[in-house]
Amino acid sequence: MPELRKDPVLGRWIIIAKERGKRPTDFIIEKSESKGGFCPLCPGNEKTTPAEVLRYSSTSHPPNTPGWDLRVVPNKYPALVIEGDLDKEGDGLYDKMNGIGAHEVIIETPNHNESFVQLPPERMINVFLSYRERLVDLSRDHRFKYVMVFKNYGRGAGASLEHSHSQLVAMPILPRMIVSELAGSLSYYRYKERCVFCDIIRQETKQEIRVVCQNDHFLCITPYAPRSPFEMWILPKYHSSSYIEQDTRSFQALTAIFTESMLRLDNCIPNVPYNFVLHTSPLRSEPLEHYHWHFEIMPKLTKIAGFEWGTGFYINPTPPEEAAKYLRKLDY
Amino acid sequence: MPELRKDPVLGRWIIIAKERGKRPTDFIIEKSESKGGFCPLCPGNEKTTPAEVLRYSSTSHPPNTPGWDLRVVPNKYPALVIEGDLDKEGDGLYDKMNGIGAHEVIIETPNHNESFVQLPPERMINVFLSYRERLVDLSRDHRFKYVMVFKNYGRGAGASLEHSHSQLVAMPILPRMIVSELAGSLSYYRYKERCVFCDIIRQETKQEIRVVCQNDHFLCITPYAPRSPFEMWILPKYHSSSYIEQDTRSFQALTAIFTESMLRLDNCIPNVPYNFVLHTSPLRSEPLEHYHWHFEIMPKLTKIAGFEWGTGFYINPTPPEEAAKYLRKLDY
User: Domains (ranges, CATH) in chain B?
Assistant: First the structure.
């Protein structure tokens, strides 16, 4: 079983996933791994993945056979496992916990060569709807406190499979990212009695210099203090702390702005590897006045991401105002 | 002039270094950049770097000419600049600051093909002595609060030059990494009245399972909750909050343990890209009872470092006890 371990100085939790590759030679082999060949996410290969937990389909085929538009399956090499009890334990001054959780793969399209940015709206909206459906379902399991939904695109961003997919990890702790955001936004709220993200949206729509694009429901900006060149945030314009609160029209608008933003990014830096992460309130949390759900999209531009991820100290060579200018010009 | 910007939610500072590459096309070009050719860090090319601020030499050549063993020069493309005033300014809800600071390159050897792990002890000790000398010198400039000393080795870890070098950035703010460490260790100290790092050292030397190697002065361990496979920490065994407090014997011992640790790592995963970062107390700080200086060495194993750097949520496939076992076997 995987293990969750806490850094005694920083309080940061780490997943030790022993079941994955671990010996020094594994890292050497991974580098020379070749692309192409068999794809476990393609239609016809349903039996090579664990049984699906969600399936969108316009035809009536049985589960785990072809004919689907979108599938969600448990990760074959999960970082956390679903069965077991949440034992917490000390080890001298250290703290650890059983690695209980869920790790799922959202297979976004049956077409192997259709990348996320190429998904037609009817497929893209399925992706966003499936995130909500899984969040709602997993929130019923009271062992879990948070579900992190994310996508790695391109090997430079950590993707090991070519076929378009995103992932989610349901975990028994709050990740550091959300702990810090909740604390930071609460401290702003206590001082100003306003949501800091709502204030950001107000200032950005007024100044316009960091706006990439927008529609009635959503705003896409390059954030004021971006860690990475061409980093983008997509925020709902109306205050909402939880992703699962959205209605159908909002999902349509999210599909539209996400497609446009990713196309603009791809136009600027063709085929750039990226990660995106959904930032939303903890599972079963009351609506929060101080928190505002959003997506953060981080292009992975190798030379930049040197030691920054280990230190929290970022050097960004592209002012977000410049990045937004490039991103706004579709035919740059 | 570069700009320091603060994220309004997280309080994280970012350097916007406009002077560096910034257009979308710059990122595309960087990828295809070829290795080899002219090296600005090699002897004979001293005039192509800014004038040296420190030089170790066993012969008496004039500054900025060959004959040196180690040189420290300002970075030609600095993330922060030395001239100017520390203006702080608001921009609506955002905060920014002039990008005042120093960004220097420590050229560790005149030999282009001698990598850090191959440095003979008399060169390696120069590197560690030069860190101290620059820390002491830069602490006289009261605009600076912290000096971050680090090394990127290998393109995968962000190094843009092959010739062995490390870097330092003197900055007018405390980086998030050190703020969190100071806060975390202080909170432990308030509760236990002991330094958390001293407690870690006690437990690790007793348990031995995560010890890579040690000598009279230093301990090298794989930390209990490592972000990266084969992450290593090198800590002085005696309590000390500041790197600059070390005496000569301690520098010899540091040289010995660093060489051994890096050789062991290189033996496990030949030529692995890595970053190391010196964690030490802020400039001009009193000796701190709760803080303990140390080095953190992070191998950069691509498939792992996916979206983790953006979220603070790490999945590590190699338990540190396993890593330590491999690292201890020199002839594995």
Answer: 3-27+38-176 (3.30.428.10), 185-277+284-328 (3.30.428.10)
- Coil/strand/helix, residue A148: strand
Residue A326 forms contact with B (CB below 8 Å): yes
| pLDDT at res. A34 | 45
Six-digit token pair at A256? Answer: 């539209």
Q: Please state, in angstroms and as integers, the Cα–Cα distance from residue B284 to each residue in A74, B136, B146, B183, B236, following that order.
A: 52, 9, 9, 18, 20
Backbone torsions φ then ψ of B296, nearest 5 degrees:
-115, 125
Residues 6+ apart with CB under 8 A from B118: none
Helix (H) or strand (E) holding B314: strand B314-316
Residue B201 structure tokens: 């050292």
Higher per-residue pLDDT: B175 or B287? B287
Assigned token pair, B89:
């300014």
Residues B67-79 pLDDT 10s: 999 999 999 888 8
H runs (alpha helix) in B139-247: 176-192, 196-207
3-state secondary structure of A301: coil
With tokens 């990008």, the residue in question is B99
* pTM of the model as a whole: 0.91
DSSP B221: E
Confidence of residue B314 (pLDDT cuts 50, 70, 90): confident
In chain A, at which residue ranges do the beta strands (DSSP E only) sit?
A: 3-6, 13-16, 54-56, 70-74, 88-91, 94-98, 102-107, 146-153, 165-171, 211-214, 218-221, 232-236, 274-279, 294-299, 314-316
Interface probe for A, chosen from B3, B5, B14, B176 (most Cβ of A below 10 Å), is B14
**Interface predicted TM-score of the whole assembly (ipTM), two decimals:** 0.88
Residue A52 scores a pLDDT above 70: yes
Q: Is A268 helix (H, G, I), strand (E, B) or coil?
A: helix
Contact A10 B181 (CB under 8 A): yes
**Which of B303, B308, B329 should one mutate to test binding to chain A, selecting the residue with the greatest count of A CBs within 10 A?**
B303
Instruction: Note whether B310 contacts A275, CB cutoff 8 Å.
Output: yes
| Chain A residues whose beta carbon lies within 8 Å of the beta carbon of residue B27 | 229, 269, 272, 301
pLDDT digits (tens, 9 = 90+) for A137-154: 999 999 999 999 999 998
Confidence of residue A275 (pLDDT cuts 50, 70, 90): very high
DSSP 8-state secondary structure symbol assigned to residue A136: H
The partner residue sitting opposite B307, judged by closest CB among A15, A158, A302, is A158
> What's CA A125's distance to the chain center, in Å?
15
The tokens for A322 are 């410049």
Q: How far is residue B252 from each of residues B58, B121, B184, B211, B217, measured CA to CA in Å?
A: 19, 8, 30, 20, 9
Strands (DSSP E) along B41-164, which ranges? 54-56, 70-74, 88-91, 94-98, 102-107, 146-153
Q: How confident is the model at residue A28 (pLDDT cuts 50, 70, 90)?
A: low
Amino acid at A113: N
State the pairing for strand pair A218-221/A211-214. Answer: antiparallel
Residue of higher predicted confidence among A85 and B52: B52
| pLDDT tens digits for range A194-241 | 999 999 999 999 999 999 999 999 999 999 999 889 999 999 999 999
| Region label for B27, one of left (φ > 0), alpha (ψ between -120 and 50) or beta (otherwise) | alpha
Mean of all residue pLDDT scores within chain B? 90
Dihedral (CA of A206, A210, A215, A217) sign: negative
